[in-house]
Amino acid sequence: MADHPIETPPRAPSPVHRFGTLAVHAGSPHDPTTGAVIEPISLSTTFAQTAVGKPVGQYEYSRSSNPNRENFEKAVAALEHAKHALAFASGSATTAIILQSLAAGSHVISVSDVYGGTHRKGARCQSYVYARDRVDISEHITPETKLVWIETPSNPTLRLVDIRAVASQAHEHGIMVVVDNTFLSPYIQNPLDHGADIVVHSVTKYINGHSDVVMGVAAFNSDAMKERLGFLQNAIGAIPSAFDSWLAHRGLKTMHLRVREATTNATAVAKALEGSPHVIAVNYPGLGSHPHRAIALRQHRNGMGGGMLSFRIKGGHAAAERFCQTTSLFTLAESLGGIESLIEVPSSMTHAGIPKEQREAVGVFDDLVRVSCGIEDAEDLKADVLQALEKAVVASKITNRFAINGNGHA
Ligand SMILES: *Cc1c(COP(=O)(O)O)cnc(C)c1O
């Protein structure tokens, strides 16, 4: 027995397998020499060659390709119903490389309030279209337009974009469509199935899911795109490390469980907020009151709303700040999509770089609080939000009145 190489069963599940099966098995071969069920971390930067230009296996140098990165890319491709996936050092590096792949002078149309960082990068050659019920990009198309960038749900107002509708318009003009799917994860939404050409993720968020890796990925079907973006991945070298690839792959294997739980929690928190007299409005695509609920029902798995929501608190920016300092389970921090619940105030944190007028035009008011629900227990999260609202809105009013009466100062 020991003299024979270990027979490894075929480990690439066919597309007939469902999400959880693919998450666990796609890109997860048993180690061919030891039979290890979990892949080893391949830290070697270089790989031996038996003759000039004849490497022992398929690897030569770790920037060009690495077993852990490749396995992770295979897993993401399977989960996004894509032929190819390429991993990068961050979500931002992924965006930069896609924009870099366009001809110089290309024009990009961004639909909705895109991620702050994406905004910063594109400012010179971009047009912005707000995500309304029916997005019409036609008036923004120029002969130089090469790309439409969609974020759905948008950040931080959770507006939805009908990917199919935008892709149909763009494709009539030979324009490519990219969807940033970070907020929902591949478990809830698969943009390529709705006509997108490329789907991107900040792996930092739901795919890794444990707030301990910064990484990005792009998935697509075109072989020509694989050639072009693969060239830039290697040439620019903004690649994830073997260790990060391995960690992110481990996180990916439980994504469906985490995302389901985060959705359950966000639904409970959104309903509690909606029922509170201290809240002006709640943005959550899982609620019947969401203006784009019909899109969620078409585009999301079982109409799920995901783990992200935002809401406007009564009492302005001060109340928003107080709220974030008063929760005990939700941590005041940027980022999202981890096992732990986080909150932040976009107007002075993630979206502070966008001019106020522009921010408010897309609904990012000073009193907006963004919430990332983790996988704690729904009842505990709900109770935490409700007690923080009482303290941030009601208790502070009482304190203020006391201060005015007591000191005579306004
Ligand atoms: C975080 C984030 C990014 C950027 O990803 P990094 O991994 O932080 O570089 C891009 N898009 C969205 C929607 C994000 O939330």
From TrEMBL:
InterPro entries: Cys/Met-Metab_PyrdxlP-dep_enz, PyrdxlP-dep_Trfase, PyrdxlP-dep_Trfase_major, PyrdxlP-dep_Trfase_small. It holds the Pfam family Cys_Met_Meta_PP. Its cofactor is pyridoxal 5'-phosphate. The modification N6-(pyridoxal phosphate)lysine is found at residue 205. One of its GO terms (biological process) is transsulfuration. GO terms for cellular component: cytoplasm. Its EC number is 4.4.1.1. Keywords: Amino-acid biosynthesis, Cysteine biosynthesis, Lyase, Pyridoxal phosphate. Belongs to the trans-sulfuration enzymes family. This is cystathionine gamma-lyase. It comes from Lachnellula cervina.
